[in-house]
Structures are given as structure tokens and as C-alpha cells.
Amino acid sequence: MRYAENIADLVGHTPLVKLNRVTAGATEATVLAKVEYLNPGGSVKDRIASRMIDAAERDGLLRPGGTIVEPTSGNTGVGLALVAQQRGYRCIFVVPDKFGEEKRNVLAAYGAEVVVTPTSVAPDSPESYYGVSDRLAREIPGAFKPNQFANPNGPRAHYETTGPEIWQDTEGRVTHFVAGIGTGGTITGTGRYLREVSGDRVRVIGADPEGSVYSGGTGRPYFVEGVGEDMWPDTYDPAVPNEVLAISDADSFRMTRRLAREEGLLVGGSSGMAVAAALQAAKGASPADVFVVLLPDGGRGYLGKIYNDKWMRAYGFGNAPSGHSVADLLA
Ligand code: PMP
Q1: Strands 30-35, 16-18: parallel, antiparallel or unpaired by DSSP?
Q2: Is the pLDDT of residue 326 over 70?
Q3: Which of the ends of the chain has fewer CB neighbours closer than 10 A, N or C?
Q4: What distance in angstroms lies between residue 160's CA and the mean position of ligand 1's atoms?
Q5: Counting Cβ atoms within 10 Å, is residue 202 exposed (0-12), middle (13-18) or buried (19+)?
Q6: Cα separation of 66 and 175, whole Å?
Q7: Taking CB atoms and a 6 Å cutoff, what residues make up the pocket around ligand 1?
Q8: Residue 283 catalytic?
Q9: What is the complex's ipTM, to 2 decimals?
Q10: Across the strands, what pairs with 282?
């Protein structure tokens, strides 16, 4: 019989799929998408969750019956909850109230406890997202805070898994790697591995929302979720990417919708952003070039936003391909 011992053992080994329609006329290169929403928790973050927990157990920071406390509202929380549940840890996630109820409900469905904090307080206030998570981590006996923006096991997870998977699946023919930058763990770990293993032949390209610090901005607000920053986290090594491209929300969302409609890939906005950057970088590339672009999560969490015409119009992104042409005709 062929089966996994438990769901957490199914993290990683995600497939590559060739993009066909969005690349037509845009580049001669082969562009392969690494589909991270096929991880059991639905995102690339499952990879770092399992590594951060493994390392904390090894270092004695997390013991049987312990509690994981992390300020997160999204994918990292799901990954941590899934692994924690399999190993009998309690999970407490601190979530700012600006995040939708749906996201909190997902965390609760996995058995995590969710503490909601007000968004409208200063970051250094004890009531803030950071303040509350620090206090819980300090006061709960046996608590461990993975701290994904500073934990070296994030980039390490990608150095040990994502990078080698891409190298093996392309039989060493990958020439470019493109990924968005949030904590920077994905691009730092995967990019470093691919540059090393290829004798610095693989070119690493970061994708960043216009306005974020990684592409020279100040942290100006943007709508694409999970990427971009207004500070420089320890998990990002700016020496790894050969270049970082700034991509507008409008371009990210337009490509996100095209991936769903034309490639059958229902993905989140950071995936559209990464593909938009990949196509920009691949303009003029040769047919021998093999671009690998990482798609961090699926699109179900964005049905009310990127895939909703009303939301898109309200925020000025109304020129993206519509999902509702019959309704538009009848309107
Ligand atoms: N996209 C999404 C949807 C994410 O949740 C994240 C993680 N914050 C990223 C991209 C970026 O990944 P990383 O933190 O490894 O840079």
C-alpha cells in the first residue's frame, strides 16, 4: 500500500507545470510554474512551518504539550496549525482585526485559538498584534514563538527542499528562478541553493509590490497580500537576487485572473505578481531558457477581492478581465 503516515508528511514535492497561454507572444522561453497551493495546507508556508517546528523540538524550545504562539493571519498559521495538530501542540494565533473573518475561521477550523487585536493602535502598544503575541509567549508556560521574520529555518527549509526539487525536476536545466518576497525566505533559500548548485549560472529574480522596500520603496500601501515589506527582515538576504522587479497591483491582479481563466490555475495575487515579473524578465529570452516561477498560494481566499468584479472596480482595477461576462451582458 502506498500512503503517507500523516498529512504533514505530504508537505513539499510540488509539481512544475508549463505556462502556455499567458506566455504566448510574451516570451520564447519555457516558463514553468511551481504550484505551491498543492501543499496540504494550501500554500508554500507549510514548508517553513514543519521545519521551524522540527528545529524547535530539536533545540528543546518546544516540548510535549507546548504551545505555539505567532502573530499571523494567513498561510503560516495554517501550516503551523496543521503540523502542531499532528504532534499535539496547542496553537494560538494573534490576528489584527483588519483581516477577514474567513481567514480566522480557517485557523479555528484546524483547531487553533485565535486572538483578535485592534488594527488602530500603535505597533509598540501592548494592545497591538506584536504586543499581545509577545505577552502570550512570555506568560504561557511552555510557549514557543516561531517568529517567521527572524527564524533562519524559514530560508533553510527552502534551501533544503524547494531548491533541490526545482534542480532535480528540471534536470539542472533551470536558467532563471522568479519568486515574490515577503519574509524573503523563499527567494533567499531557493535562490541561494540554485545559484550554488549551478555554479552561479541560475539568475534569481525577485518580484515585489510597487512601493515596498525590496524594490526601493518606502512601504507605501499596496493591495497584493503576503509580499512586500516596510522593514528589512533577517530572513531576507538582499545579496541573493540578481535583480528585484517592482510590479503594480493592477499588473499583479490582471495576471492573477489570467492564470485562473487561461491556465486553470486559481491562485492568489502574489502568484500573479510573480508571473508578471517572470514575463517581464523573460522578454527577449532565448527558447533554451527555462524560467521557474513559484506560485505561493491558491485563489479561494481571494474570491471576495481579486476575483470579485465589484471589489476590483471599487479599487480602480476594473480593466482586468472580468469573471462574469454573461452577468455583464444582462446588466
Ligand atoms: N505569497 C504569499 C501569499 C505569502 O503568504 C507569502 C509569505 N508571506 C509569500 C508570497 C512570500 O514568501 P516569503 O515569505 O518566503 O518571502
Answers
A1: antiparallel
A2: no
A3: N
A4: 17
A5: buried
A6: 43
A7: 43, 45, 74-75, 180-186, 225-227, 268, 270, 296-297
A8: no
A9: 0.99
A10: none
